[in-house]
Amino acid sequence: KGKEKMPNLDSVKVAVRVRPFNQREKDAGSQCVISMNSNCTTICDPRNPENRKSFTFDIAYWSHSGFIKNADGKFIPGGLGSRYADQMKVFNDLGQGVLDNAWQGYNATLLAYGQTGSGKSYSMIGYGANRGIIPIVCEELFRVINNNQDKNKQYQQVSFSMLEIYNEQVKMLISKQCAPSSLKICVDVFLFLFFGGGKYLKGETEGISKLVTSPATRPMPRTDRLNSPSDSTSMYLAQFFYKIFLEENITKQSSINMVDLAGSERQKVSGSEGDRLREGTAVNLSLTTLGNVISSLAEVAVRKRVLHIPYRDSVLTKLLQSALGGNSRTIMMAALSPADICYEETLSTLRYAERAKKIKNKAVVNKSPTEKLIKELKAENAKLLSKLARLGSSGQLHRLLAENELQIQAIQVFWEQHLEEARREWEQQYAAIAQERRLMQMFPYLLNVNEDPQLSGVIKHFIQDGESEVGQSGTTLNAITLKGLGILDKHATFTNTENKVTIEPHGRAKVIVNGVSAVTKTQLRHLDRIILGSSNTYIYIGFPNERNNEDLSRFDYDFFQSELAAAEGINMDKLDPPPPGYHTPPPNVLAMFHDYIKVMPLVAEANQMSEEPFKQDLKFELQVKNLALSDSKGHDLEKEIAVKVTNRTNNLVWVWSKAKFINRKFLMEELYQRYMEGKDVSVDRVSDPFWDPVEAVHLGSAHVWLQSLAYCIKLEEQVEFLNSESNEEAMLQINLVPCSRAGEPFGEDDIMIDPSELLGNRLDFQIQINQCLGLKWLKQVRERGVQIGYRVYNCPNTFYMQPVWGNVNPKLHHVMHFTVLNVSQEFLSYLLTNALVVDLWGLQEGCTEMDCSFQDVRFTEEGSVIIDETKVLLSNNTVIETNENQLSELYLKLSKLEKEMELLRDVNRALREDNTILKGMLKKPDTEAPEVICSVMKRPPPPLGPKCWEDKQVCLQWSSDYDAEFAKALKAFYQSMNSVRGQLVRLRRHRPTKDEGNLQTLELFMEEQAQMLKDFGEQLEVCVNKLKNDVATIVKKKRDSLGCIKP
């Protein structure tokens, strides 16, 4: 035998495609962060435009702009200069390449990867007139077969199968008779798919194309599953097999795999930060393992040593083993979202695709001499039969021949039955479609809405005349049967009489119409939005005479969730009002609001699972972390989505991050799936997704401004602890006391008029926390405790007080002495512009208390804490801006006040120079005094005489007291300004109530806002005028004291 030809090493071909903005991104004014130049794709960080990253791939498709819609409804390039890549352009490059490889006898694979909503399904399946790669491949495949004129070629046995992988189970989308649990992955994967439920059709181009795009064969949004297919680890798989018979009696066989992978964001969630149960969720396993396989193969490609490639760790990677590093020519298409709010996920997709292009496959032509061997065996069989006829009867030979004939007949019957079953299912599906079209012209109906636009509109529930019950088990003729969380046996009743349709919930059934819960009979109107249970979302399509060919695409899944959020008082203006002159919120707020409406249905499902079937008695509440909290400069903290979990039985509370909650939600889904299958759902505490160790909870923060320390003025404050929603949690009595090394408080004589005099000198001060009043955390449950902590400047430690338990108004008696050995300009700026942020933590029975030790802290000989050693200050130049015109005017007043303060400092500096000169007079002879004083007063000296100077000592004593009077005026001003600053903070955090749709409530809010603005303006005016009057009085007194000397 000659040497076999070595297989070629083929790199995975990688293409990227960027989609247009969706409606939500258009409404939000999103910016495009993707640019393409030839095969180079560049992404720009919206928070730092200078940060740009570029990637080079085999093909880059610009489908973001430059297109028009023709009369057939297809999107095509808008002109000769347009670079828009339409569906046919993508097919000609990718789909045709898949077919070309298949004709040659190679296995071919096309993978679509990207986050949910990035356009994967649009490219693979298409939408409406814009058909995707898979239906066009079907059409081209059968077109070539039907138009074959080469007598030396014969095409046979073209089979087709569609699979979905969810939770490590394979579901056959075409065959309804195969349960997911009954399909197993065999060693010969393609043989499994061939026998497991494929449709065996020859030359039926229209049939296959319609089957691919038919709602009946999509990964359906099943109501017994909690999340949508695109949002979980589900996948869409289409495979084709065909054989080519050549005159050399050689068989070539090819397998085409086209895979629409799950949303890539699931990979990120599977590594949920800080969660003890972050590993092992079956929902994430396939996509996570695929990422591990690609990373391992990429390392192999650069000649790194890899001990193991985890193909067998998941169902998906078992199926794709030949496509990744095996016998296949593979193409990956990465779908990109262009919006700035999707920056992180888009960047992750680009990096993923960059690793994939390093993979090397070993593709060979799949050919075998099977047909030649079969002909030889048939000839041999014919010779044996002729010999048998000549030899006469032979019992053993006849028996063997009879058995062979029976086996052949059994195989023929099996395939005939299989084909007949496929044809019957085909006929049933199209009969159902025809029946559905007739009903659409007769009755109103409910049309499903799914997070994946490709899965919206595939389910219709018709509301026929009379009453139609909705529930888990329908008993009436027109019953609508629904499954899933929150659906009761008898959930609601639709009534269709006199061209009117109403819905009436039963008992505690959850029914939401247009974002508002319905508790009584409610009449429905065309295009109303309905949510039944936790997550069954529908648009109500009215009677045929009410329809006007409306565009239903605007009523997408986000529209439903935004409507729910608005009903709860959550919108983008509340999360972060845009600055004056801006009409759209910044990208980080858009992304956060998008996260909020995405997590809302998950929280509803978690609550339902907690009640039924697991009886956990937990309450999940969606929150916006840091909604009304600010940093030490008063700038708003970055807002995050969090979920508050409360145990109703023992009142324990947890706060989970978004990533942790989603990871736990997947684990809950796995338990729920086992429950639906009748399996045991008992788990130990360590593996229980509903359980977590008890932890401390952040209740709120208080701000104490440090400006008084820069003037060595003692500050006695009573400030509020405000939670993330700007509600008061407690009151805190705190003092900031400048002091000596020994801790003795400074008096009024030690007040600094100019803070710059502190530079280079030592500064000591104490933080005294006396009492906390009205702790709501303990009012709710007396067995709880609290602990207070704060950080000062760049000190590495957070200073925590000793915990207090069971006392609503605890006296704390906390004193901490701090020392700055050498005041720097950075530290002085910190005092003038920052606040001390004091955090209030809630303790629960069984939780770990905060560490009160002083590790990595240096002390002076006197025992005070040393700060400002490194002279490092984190600066933030963000300017506080709000969207109210009145507040903008008040900021102008504050700016004007700062300028006036600077002028007052100049006046005070001149007065201090005068005082220094006048004090020097005490040491000079009386004859020199007039010249000195007159040089200060800028006037000619008076004539000498003892009468003019007999009151000299009294005048000098007056001038020496001016510094103390000016210091008192400053002290009074800063104390009053602290209350003004607190009023400003309350004004900025003042928000309307959740019932903002009520006109009366809005009027009340506007009245409160106007009164608060008026009070703030009056209080600010009083403070400024008092300071002006005090300074004017001091200057007048000083001049009058010097008026005793007259020329």
Account of the protein in words:
This protein has 1047 residues and is α+β, with helices and mostly antiparallel strands. It has five domains: 10-176 and 186-218 and 234-263 and 280-361, Kinesin, CATH 3.40.850; 442-568, Tumour Suppressor Smad4 (Sandwich); 572-677, 2-Layer Sandwich (Double Stranded RNA Binding Domain), CATH 3.30.160; 697-866, Immunoglobulin-like (Sandwich); 964-983 and 1008-1046. Helix content is 36%, strand content 23%. The protein is built from 24 helices and 43 strands. The strands form ten sheets. Strands 2, 6, 9, 12, 13, 14, 15, 16, 17 and 19 form a ten-stranded mixed beta sheet that branches. α13 packs across α15, α15 runs parallel beside α16 (658-676) and α23 (962-988) packs antiparallel against α24. It starts with 7 loop residues before the first strand and ends in a 5-residue tail after the last helix. Residues 1-7, 187-205, 222-239, 870-885 and 936-956 have low confidence and may be disordered.
Helical region count?
Answer: 24
Report how far the terminal alpha carbons are from each other.
131 Å
Question: What is the CATH architecture descriptor of the largest domain?
Answer: 3-Layer(aba) Sandwich
What is the number of beta strands? Answer: 43
Strand content: 15-25%
Q: How does the major sheet shape up?
A: 10 strands, mixed
Rg, alpha carbons: 39 Å
Whole-number tally of structural domains: 5
Class per helix and strand makeup: alpha+beta
The share of residues in helices is 25-40%
List low-pLDDT spans.
1-7, 187-205, 222-239, 870-885, 936-956
Shape: elongated
Mean pLDDT: 77
CATH topological fold name of the largest domain: Kinesin
The CATH class assignment of the largest domain is Alpha Beta
CATH superfamily of the largest domain: Kinesin motor domain
